[in-house]
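Lab channel / #folding
Pinned by the channel admin:
"Please post every new chain as: sequence first, then the structure tokens as a reply. Keep commentary short and put observations after the output so the thread stays searchable."

First post following the new format, from NK:
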Amino acid sequence: MTETRTPVSPFSAGLSCKCPRCGEGPLFVNVLNMRDACSVCGLDYKFVDTGDGPAIFAIFILGFLSMGAAMIAEFKFGVPWWGHVILLGLVMPLFAVLLLRFLKATLIALQYKNKAEEGRKVKD
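Reply from TO:
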């Protein structure tokens, strides 16, 4: 008998950083290190190739947020220079790591759902 699974939403799998097939097994070992396979359903993660996608999205999102925060802090509140160092130098790298984790998991789930793979002229 084959077990039928309800499809997992790529965005819920990405936000929870879970396996894109079963939605239960953790995707990462530490903060951004991938597991070899899912501990629940056994999905092999060798297909994963997000490349620079998560970093590019994070750069655009964090660039917008950090510039907006810096401008609001400067022009509305008159924050001294050390306030900008704390805001941009300490808080933004933490946001970057957390954002990269969710973006990487979401792109992996989308890659799994859409069966995305490297382009070839002839199927092997």
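NK: DSSP finds three helices and no strands in the chain.
TO: also worth noting, Residues 43 and 60 are 31 Å apart (CA to CA).
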